[in-house]
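Researcher: We plan to redesign the surface later, but first we want a full-length starting point. Tokens attached.
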């Protein structure tokens, strides 16, 4: 009985700590995985770039979630993966909104990962 009680309260404490760390606004990193939303930046594009810079030369994954405005051009470095979670990402850049360097990739999480076409002049030629 005493072991069950201790195990239960230990689990509750771990759950509270895990929830607090995710919602505390701190920069989230897990090895070579970073959450762009927790980085500073004026828009989601700037946050993604800050996350990319935090990975440096190490291969890794940048996770972005919840959507937002891409007003700053995103550049993903070689060896990095941009994983776009559910949300609508509206491109408002003057140029190409997302550039992938050689050896990088962009992966959406399904139908709920929406990247809108840029409204900037001269983006597409027919």
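Model: Full-length starting sequence:
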């Amino acid at each position: 009985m005493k072991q069950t009680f201790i195990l239960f309260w230990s689990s509750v404490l771990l759950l509270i700590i895990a929830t607090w760390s995710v919602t505390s606004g701190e920069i989230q990193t897990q090895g070579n995985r970073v959450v762009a939303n927790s980085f500073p930046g004026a828009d989601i594009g700037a946050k993604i770039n800050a996350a990319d810079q935090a990975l440096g030369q190490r291969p890794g994954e940048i996770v972005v979630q919840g959507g937002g405005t891409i007003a700053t051009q995103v550049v993903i470095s070689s060896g990095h993966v941009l994983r776009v979670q559910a949300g609508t990402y509206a491109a408002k850049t003057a140029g190409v909104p997302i550039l992938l360097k050689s050896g990088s990739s962009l992966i959406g999480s399904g139908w709920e990962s929406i990247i809108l076409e840029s409204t900037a002049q001269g983006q597409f030629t027919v």
